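Schema walk-through. Below, the input block comes first and the output block second. Nothing else is stored per chain. Lengths vary across the set, and this one has 417 residues.
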Amino acid sequence: MIRYFTLNKAFLKSCIGCRTLLAALLLAAFGGYADLVNAELKPIPQVIQSKHDFPKTEATSWILADYHTGWILGGQNIDDRVEPASLTKLMTSYLIFDALKTGRLNEDDMVFVSHRAYRAVGSRMYVEENSQVSVIDLLNGLVIQSGNDAAIALAEHYGGSEESFAKIMNQKAAELGMTNTRFTNSSGLPDPEHYSTLRDITLLSISLIRDFPDYFKLYSELEFTYNNITQQNRNILLTRDSRVDGLKTGYTRIAGYCLIATSNQEGFRLIAGVLGAKSKVKRADQVHGLIRYGYYAYDSIDVLKKNTRVVAVPMLMGEENEVSVGSDKGIRLPYPKETRHKLSASFELPEEVDAPLSSGQQVGFIQIKYDRQPVLRSSLHVMGDYSEGPWYKKIYDLTKRMVFRWFDSPAGSPQTE
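--- output ---
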């Protein structure tokens, strides 16, 4: 049974859960039913790509991606291996955020500052040798001040040594699908064997926002004071555009000026980044140009709400007569501006299902089309548990099924010439 809908206001109101369908669809269309945000980045389907030209970007590599779907709206040289510079600290912070979330570390844990951490070159938060600094202060120094000393101190505290911590970084990179990345240190200081790609850095950024929404907010802080020294966040887009709320800058002589940033406009979140820009101002200008382009060329529709019923399917053999079907993930879809009328959805569902049913059990699919061409397909699941009905209800339902099937069969149909 296939039911068709257009993604207009009527559809959005009739589907009690208009957000949840799309997140799963996007993922399924490109292989596997992942989380709200894709486990890998894929080009936006050509049919739904905006016709507007991207702004000229002089950086060596650049990317613009949609956060919710993982669709790459545009990019250049995103798979070239590069020196990631301080963008490395995204992974360092990811691991510390995870340790805090799981209870391995606490914010007020005190960290010993070794001679190696104290003597770190480049950007620093100016911790004192042999001092004790809290995890949360070091995190602020890492994220806001881009302190190499903070990175090393946290790495040594977490992993026992920076070398051991780098191995953990590489393990996590593999888990996140960063297939062209290798870390040898926690700070991003130059090393021939320390590399990544803009694709992998974008994937890491998406994962960090998704997995640690509370700690991610540190990336939007404008300044941090430690040891009576106040330093500003190097991401100047935070004060230029209120939609920008993170992430990270970086620089080395080989890498050039780098910036990966994220912005949020009424739930429509973008990831934009450049590597190899010529100056601090140019990296900010070029990333800002990509963000402005994204909101100029695209709108985003919240198609399904998380954990909300989308449609009901008739159910036999149970205490109830229908089962609520939806998705356990919210879904949001970008599309070229002023073309929402080209979006449509269809459900692939059985005529009926039998109890018992368990929450999360797959019962069908939803497919999203743009201009009549499929762009997403995702599974639909039972919302809640449904037990078997009493014996007399089962007999009634079995009898009803047999009668309907008999009338639907050739033997039960009236004969005509």
